[in-house]
Amino acid sequence: MKYIFVTGGVVSSLGKGLTTASIGLLLESRGLKVSLQKFDPYINVDAGTMNPFQHGEVYVTEDGAEADLDLGHYERFTNAKITRLSNYTTGKIYSSVIAKERAGEYLGKTVQVIPHVTNEIKIAIRNPSREEVDVSIAEMGGTVGDIESLPFLEAIRQIGLEEGRNNVLYIHLTLIPYLRASQEMKSKPTQQSVGKLREIGIQPDILICRTEKPLSNEIKEKLALFCNVKIENVIEEKDVDFSIYEVPVIFASQKMDERIIKHLSLKCTESDLSEWQDMLNRLKHSDETVKIAVVGKYLELQDSYKSIYEALTHGGVANNVRVEIKRVNSEEIERNGAEKMLQGVNGILVPGGFGERGVEGKILSIKYAREKRIPFFGICLGMQCATIEFARNVLCLNDAHSCEFAPTTSNPVIDLMTEQKQVKTIGGSMRLGAYPCELKEHSLTFIAYKSKLVYERHRHRYEFNNRYKELFSAKGWDFSGICPSNELVEIIELKDHPWFVGVQFHPEFKSKLVKPHPLFRDFIKASRFSGTGIKRG
Ligand code: GLN
Question: What is the pTM for the complete model shown?
Answer without folding.
Answer: 0.94
